[in-house]
Design brief:
single chain, 315 residues, alpha/beta, D-Maltodextrin-Binding Protein, domain 2, 10-stranded mixed sheet
Length: 315
């Protein structure tokens, strides 16, 4: 009798194991044949760093080929590729992602990832104290088709500095801007990134810098473009003179389109949050990834599959 009960227990355990195995096989085969491309910015950037880690996690978790990480120029290029069907997933700053589009595909958010802070870098001992002082100067505004150039042009336009001949604009990425700044080939440059941005930290180690405080410019900028927020960069971030520097903040989103299936979007979000420890090792910006703030993607709607994930997790 005891042997029969023991056999029944073993048989029950075996059946349960087979059931779980069947579930796992079903889950693994759910996305069989799915191939994904991630529009991820330039190779040394935060978007690309995070994309590489996420590609590995998604490969393991969804049992698919490792997603292809595409090098791009930045947010505008990422969104263009996404909406053109040349990428399936994209990182983008919220201001770029929120641009109206009449494409067949529409952007949908999986999550808010982290925030970028606008830096306008000048020499500490120079004459530039506010945006108006940039008139007649040589200014780096980011590489073409980058999120930095997108926000820089908006800021300059609101400040009355967008007319031809008002200043000399140089389309330089961060590394090129820093080198040109060191060589006195430009007087200032724009950057939008997390805190601290290593390139600017390294610059501050060899050259005294100042960040322009945008307190007086924030009301018209945020009035025209509500997608932006405001925040302060602590002086200690780059050993800046004086107190904290008020500036614009823009969120970064992980995007797909409305053509993606709900189940795949759900699985991608699950992979994102499961990958947080690895992402944090990849880049400190990932420490900001939080399941509660991830749903704050206005004005870009959450994908229905992502929304289901957050509902299932009581968010």
């Amino acid at each position: 009798m005891a042997r029969t009960r023991r056999f029944d227990r073993l048989r029950g355990a075996l059946l349960a194991l087979l059931a779980v195995s069947g579930l796992l096989t079903s889950c693994d085969s759910q996305f069989e044949g799915v191939r994904l491309r991630v529009a991820a910015g330039f190779t040394s950037g935060v978007y690309n760093n995070l994309s590489q880690s996420l590609a590995t996690k998604w490969q393991e978790q969804l049992a698919i080929d490792r997603p292809e990480v595409l090098e791009t120029s930045g947010s505008p290029d990422n969104v263009n590729k996404l909406l053109a069907g040349e990428a399936d997933i994209a990182f983008s700053a919220a201001d770029v992602a929120a641009q109206p589009t009449n494409r067949d595909r529409q952007p949908r958010a999986l999550a808010r990832i982290y925030d970028d802070y606008l830096h306008v870098v000048v020499r500490r001992d120079g004459p530039i104290r506010n945006l108006a002082d940039l008139r007649g100067m040589r200014v780096g505004i980011g590489s073409p088709e980058s999120g930095v150039a997108f926000i820089a042009k908006r800021v300059l336009a609101i400040s009355g500095l967008s007319e031809p001949g008002t200043l000399t604009l140089e389309n330089l990425g961060l590394t090129a801007s820093i080198e040109a700044f060191k060589l006195d080939k430009i007087d200032a440059f724009f950057w939008s990134g997390g805190l601290p941005t290593k390139g600017i930290t390294d610059l501050a180690d060899v050259l005294p810098i100042r960040l322009l405080d945008l307190t007086d410019d924030l009301p018209p900028l945020r009035g025209r473009y509500p997608v932006y927020n405001s925040a302060s960069i602590p002086a200690s971030t780059y050993r800046l003179p004086g107190g904290p520097v008020n500036t614009l903040v823009v969120s970064n989103f992980l995007l797909v389109t409305d053509k993606m299936s709900d189940d795949l979007a759900y699985a991608l979000v699950q992979g994102l949050f499961d990958a947080r420890p690895e992402l944090a090792k990849t880049n400190p910006a990932a420490l900001s990834i939080d399941v509660h703030s991830a749903i704050e993607t206005h004005p870009v709607p959450l994908h229905a599959g992502a929304a289901r994930y957050y509902r299932d997790h009581k968010i």
